[in-house]
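Lecture 7 notes: from sequence to structure.

We start with a single chain of 197 residues. Read the sequence below before looking at the structure.
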Amino acid sequence: MGSAPSLDERDYVRGGATQTAVKILVVGHFAVGKTTLIGSISEIEPLSTEETMTQAAESVDDLKGVQGKTTTTVAMDFGRLTISDRVVLYLFGTPGQQRFVQMWEDMARGALGALVLVDPERLADSFPVIDLIEQYGLDYAIAVNHFDGAPLRDERALREALDLLDDTPVVTCDARDEKSSAAALTTLVRYLLDRTR
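Now the structure, written as tokens:
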């Protein structure tokens, strides 16, 4: 059994630059695309704790409306994205199952905000997620993950269904696409900057 690979500081902080590290949570219900989004955008090899789902999980995790799901996050995902010479985002993806909710409190500590991924076909699954983020006092943006073949939803109807404040950003994204994921995170960061001014 070999030793674990060591992390080189240069993988996480660019040499010579003074950077502000910003902790962002990427949250959402089970099977909404959190791991995919972080994997599509991270400039380092993302840390992923995806494991194969077992038959035991079938009785615990609701797979209704989820096709082809064979793995699930069992701890967290982590990625890094530099958005300017001075600001770097550290992305923490939370597991979506209810049984992992106790981890969220620790992960929320020190976070500036959250990107809440939503499946428009399973909006009700987003209510507990949004409740938790609000309970932790985090500002957030909604990113509607547009799945293949799913109809585009009217933003006003989504806002009403999710009971969002008027200033809460809502964007549509494709978690598999780097540019789309970057645009969603950029929307969140701009919103957070506006909130701190």
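Confidence is low (pLDDT under 50) at residues 1-13. Keep this in mind for problem set 3.
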